[in-house]
Amino acid sequence: MDVIVYNSKGVDTGKKVTLPEDVFGIEPNQHAIYLDVKQYLANQRQGTHKAKERAENAHSTRKLKKQKGTGGARAGSAKSPVFVGGGTIFGPRPRDYSFKLNKKVKSLARKSALAAKAQASKISVIDSIALEAPRTKDYVQFLNDMQLTGRKTLLILPDLDANVVLSSRNVEKAKVTTAAQVNTYDLMNADQLLISEAALSTIQTLFNQ
């Protein structure tokens, strides 16, 4: 699949680049994408939720009323879950939500996500982007030139560029990552992928290991 290469001003450079077929040309595996996104979201959960159960409640254990003769149900400790302020029945406890996923499945998921974006024509290749200093308005101008203002974008670079990262940090719906750090969730969450021409070879090498 051939795509046009743009410069950082959003102008067609007049050349095209061929996306690697073994990454961008495969049949997307939707289940692999689902599993990888599920693992990513599960790993974001802290799992620190906790509710006090009956044994942990600070109420007194005295009997609230006599056993018989009141015309109501029997009642013991105020810690009982049936009373306001009592313990919680089967309340949430701290737990780890993370789970294992094979490397080959994760690799397939990332390739499937890239292939799905390629088939939907949601990939733009840029020759390079270099900012002299961290300035948010420079990155906003870059998105304006690419006609992507207000859309979710993911810029994939071959290596981390501090100026680009800092410039994009306060831009809503914009994210910058490297070819080695990109994940399936970010790929699927973006409306448009912006891939540096130099990052394509890195993607092909890493995703086919």
From TrEMBL:
Residues 45-79 are annotated as: Disordered. The gene is rplD. GO terms for molecular function: rRNA binding; structural constituent of ribosome. Keywords: Ribonucleoprotein, Ribosomal protein, RNA-binding, rRNA-binding. Part of the 50S ribosomal subunit. GO terms for cellular component: ribonucleoprotein complex; ribosome. NCBIfam families: rplD_bact. The keyword Ribosomal protein applies. It comes from the Bacteria. Belongs to the universal ribosomal protein uL4 family. The keyword S-adenosyl-L-methionine does not apply. One of its GO terms (biological process) is translation. This is Large ribosomal subunit protein uL4. One of the primary rRNA binding proteins, this protein initially binds near the 5'-end of the 23S rRNA. It is important during the early stages of 50S assembly. It makes multiple contacts with different domains of the 23S rRNA in the assembled 50S subunit and ribosome.
